[in-house]
Amino acid sequence: MAIISPTKSHQVFFNYRGEQLRHSFVSHLTDAFERHGINFIVDKYEQRGKDLKNIFARIEESSIALAIFSTRYPESSWCMDELVKMKKLADKGKIQVIPIFYKVSARDVRRQTGKFGDKFWNLARASITSGDQIKKWKEALECISGKMGLSLKNKSCEADFIKEIVKEVVRVIEAPELEEKDNHAEKKKRTHRSCLCELPHFKRSKTLTVFFFFFFSFLF
């Protein structure tokens, strides 16, 4: 069972096409996350019949999101709406989105071409949603696929790819902690340098006082 954190403490949200990847790639990836103690949330644990507001709340609780693009990803308006929400939060700096290209090219995702593009335009034509929402789908695809991500080609090893994803997520989780340590170390260095600068001044002042003491003692 997934480890679901009640807070935003490094929780990872999975955005993916369930019918294609739930019982294969994503299942193996969540197993790897559990072994490494990484908190995550996937929509298979949501109760059926709930609306997107519940999923959006889970996204807002997360600090990292994995957008796992695959050939069947754009079949789902649910996936697309989640992606729009993720982009909105990413633009505000509230979440870090890592694109994962599962046997699909970043170019096809960004430009909505190839098999990925065919699925997207089929969804757009069949969708009862507004043209404005379809525009937001396109903008989210272009934005998120343009970020630094990880790609799995058709003949690549999935086990090695999963290790790469885990390594990248751990790196993102640890980055703020390392930055805080570096800032603390730099602050200590500045404080130490400041003390060293003041020390010679103190010595000079003390020497000058001794000099005047002996000088005036000699005169009188």
TrEMBL record:
TIR domain segment(s): 8-173
InterPro entries documented for this protein: TIR_dom (IPR000157), Toll_tir_struct_dom_sf (IPR035897)
The keyword NAD appears for this protein: yes
Presence of the UniProt keyword Repeat in the record: no
SMART domains: TIR
PROSITE patterns assigned to the protein according to its UniProt record, in alphabetical order: TIR
Entry keyword set: NAD
Gene3D superfamilies: Toll/interleukin-1 receptor homology (TIR) domain (3.40.50.10140)
One Pfam assignment: TIR
SUPFAM superfamilies noted in UniProt: Toll/Interleukin receptor TIR domain (SSF52200)
Protein name listed in UniProt: TIR domain-containing protein
